[in-house]
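Re: the 246-residue chain
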Amino acid sequence: MEIMKRYLSAVRDILQTVGETQLEAMEKAAGILARAISEKRSVFTFGTNHAGLLAQELFYRTGGLAVINFIRAPGLFLDVDPPTLTTDMERLPGYGKAIVDANPIGKGDVVLLHSVSGRNAVPIDVALHAREKGAVTICLCNMNTSAEVQSRHSSGKNLHEVCDLVIDNCGGYGDAVLEIGGFPERVAPSSTAVGAAILNAVVARTVELLLEKGITPPVFISSNVPGGDEHNEKIMAEYSGQIHYN
């Protein structure tokens, strides 16, 4: 039981650090999202392998923004067989450019990327090519890891070096946070728990900023409560120009 308390304590400590160091960047991210939504631009999220879990966290989500579009691409997520294929695919040169070209990303849009290490070719290519198309790029990464590992991209740069805005998830090197006795490997990663808190906080602030602009935010409610289906269908019809998954 003590090890579980240690993990929860570690996550609380990291969230405390986030609150002390990342609120300015999170505020900027919320401002970028609110501006894009108010200007009828599109918002996209992207990540590979487990990093893609946070890209999906913001997508088609109760209490979330209906206009956030999750970028899918074959071979990059854990539904492939074997799942080890994702490790090779996220390093594939040029694939990120093809992914951007296959999606309606344009000037004034926003692409929010998540990568703990920020070193692999695909997310870096996505960021670079999205910027070439005039999109604003925001990345969530682990700077304690990304600042220490070598890029696998031809530019020699990691993701945080090619994005317009960087939010640090403040995790430890390599993501896992717990040491157990003399066992050589750390266990229990923090990036998913902390990253979800960061991104949902940014969404909450985005909604607040939209309200301040006099705009009714396109927020989903649960389809499992009375009126949920009707509410969500109305939003998806109203914002159909910014929703690319329906």
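DSSP finds nine helices and seven strands in the chain.
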